[in-house]
């Protein structure tokens, strides 16, 4: 997977380099730390930018000599691939995808296990949104039968989660007029009435759905009840979740499920580097910046950092969490 550094990321890197140069630190002493995020319309990208700014040397509590950049990508699987290939030092992923990669199951069935994958921090819940046109007559997952539904692109974490949800309600994609589109194009097709619903996994509020709801009558389809309870029991990486009323215009409180957004890296990354990055991330200054910068930033807390750990912690992160008293 080829990664391209965004204009914002490049500017942040150049700015950090200029500041470091002004302090007399040699260029060779700098550590460049690329964080794979997601598409620019999702939640990963803005959160990645906030974290990169917080932990960079230019941040109030940043790591000396570190130039961190947020890199736009295709999401979880692409970010893990970049870490494997050395095209990125860290990345964001869904907790289920991280588990599948490490264990060689799910999306990674029949593929080599990513045994070097390590958890840096659990960030926040990623809600499974089932977005539907308000006039499509979809009140439950079971109502998707015969409807035009996008499950996201092949190879995405969302498509696997969507299939699990459908199966819990006795459906498969054969029961739908299934399409395989990214959230952006899916929203456009909902807008022009050529799609009835689509799955999206991400922290709320997500910008693309906010924009869609501002100009179109949409609803969020609940994922709850006995079917969801059975799914939660079978798949330990799912948790119950609730989207508050008016998170999206004219959309009421909706019960659903979620996975966790996680920041992962490779066991090959130096222990001291990851230790200092995590220490910087949970400093008072960084926490204030995260809380002010995005709704999901308020959930990136030290207590949440060690939850939903389906893969081993990076030793540097583990050392910090033990010192901080949140991990035994």
UniProtKB/TrEMBL annotation:
Source superkingdom: Bacteria
Family annotation (CDD domains): PBP2_TAXI_TRAP (cd13520)
The entry's keywords: Receptor, Signal
Keyword Signal listed: yes
Record's keyword annotation contains Disulfide bond: no
Pfam families for the chain: NMT1_3
Signal peptide: 1-28
Protein name, UniProt field: TRAP transporter TAXI family solute receptor
Organism, as annotated: Aquamicrobium terrae
